[in-house]
TrEMBL record:
Keywords: Isomerase, tRNA processing. Belongs to the pseudouridine synthase TruB family. Type 1 subfamily. It comes from the Bacteria. It is an enzyme of class 5 (isomerase). Pfam families: TruB_N (PF01509). This is tRNA pseudouridine synthase B. Responsible for synthesis of pseudouridine from uracil-55 in the psi GC loop of transfer RNAs. The gene is truB.
C-alpha cells in the first residue's frame, strides 16, 4: 500500500474503501471533520448499499476530480433473478416475483452478450440524476414518476457465474456514467424475468485498485497522528 504523505497545502488523492450503508458524501464529510481538510470532494458516487473504491481529493488536487471521474470503472457483485424492487436493490421492498425455471445457460449467455460494447440504458428512478432541477430519488420516494433520458455507455467486460442460480455473480468493466442497477434491471427483463442487485463492490477506477485503499477509520487515525491531533484508541 502506498501511504506516502503529500504536503497538505498541495492536497492529496485518497483511496478509501467505502463502508456499507455510507453515502459518498458521508465519507467526504467524515474525512473533512476528522482530518481538518479545508476542501474535499469525491470522484464518482457509490450508492449507500455498495462498497469499494472511492477516490477523494483535497486542496488543489480537487481540480483533478473530473479526470478521475472520466476513467473506466470495474465492479464485482451479485444480482438475483426472479424478484424485483422499485430501487433495483435492497433499499426498497420486493414488489413483484417472476418465473426463473425457463432460464438456462443458453439464455444467460445470450442475454450477457447483449450488454457488451456500446449500449443505451435508462438510469434508475432511485438515482441522483436530476430531472427538472431535482434528484430523481426524491421524486421516487414521493411516489412520483419522471421522464428519464437514455444515455449511451460502454461495457468492455461482462462476466457472469450462475453456479448459485438464481443468484448471478458478475464482474463488469464499464465507462463513466454506467448504472449497474440498470444493467441488472434490463438483464432480468431480457431473460423474461426480473432481477435485483444484492451486492456491489467497485474494485477499480482507471489504474487505482481497491487493494491499495485505506479503511476509513484507519486513514483518519493515521492522519490525526501525523497532524498531532488527539486520537481515540
Amino acid at each position: 500500500m502506498n501511504n506516502e504523505t503529500i504536503i497538505p497545502d498541495e492536497g492529496e488523492v485518497i483511496l478509501i474503501n467505502k463502508p456499507l450503508r455510507w453515502t459518498s458524501f458521508d465519507v467526504a464529510n467524515k474525512l473533512k471533520r476528522g482530518c481538518k481538510f479545508s476542501k474535499i470532494g469525491h470522484a464518482g458516487t457509490l450508492d449507500p448499499l455498495a462498497t469499494g473504491l472511492l477516490i477523494l481529493c483535497t486542496g488543489k488536487k480537487t481540480k483533478q476530480i473530473d479526470s478521475y471521474q472520466a476513467q473506466e470503472k470495474e465492479y464485482t457483485g451479485t444480482f438475483v433473478l426472479g424478484k424485483t424492487t422499485p430501487s433495483i436493490d435492497l433499499e426498497t421492498e420486493f414488489d413483484a416475483e417472476f418465473p426463473v425455471d425457463h432460464i438456462n445457460a443458453e439464455i444467460l449467455e445470450k442475454t450477457r452478450q447483449q450488454f457488451l460494447g456500446q449500449i443505451e440504458q435508462i438510469p434508475p428512478i432511485y438515482s441522483a440524476v436530476k430531472v427538472d432541477g431535482e434528484r430523481l430519488y426524491k421524486k421516487a420516494r414521493r411516489g412520483e414518476t419522471a421522464e428519464i433520458k437514455k444515455r449511451t455507455v460502454e461495457i468492455s467486460l461482462f462476466e457472469i457465474d450462475s453456479s448459485n442460480f438464481p443468484s448471478i455473480d458478475f464482474k463488469i468493466v464499464c465507462s463513466k456514467g454506467t448504472y449497474i442497477r440498470s444493467i441488472v434491471r434490463d438483464f432480468g427483463q431480457l431473460a423474461q424475468s426480473g432481477a435485483y442487485l444484492s451486492a456491489l463492490c467497485r474494485t477499480r477506477i482507471g489504474s487505482f485498485e481497491l487493494s491499495n485503499a485505506w479503511e476509513l477509520t484507519d486513514f483518519i487515525y493515521q492522519k490525526r497522528i501525523e497532524l498531532k491531533l488527539p486520537v481515540e484508541e
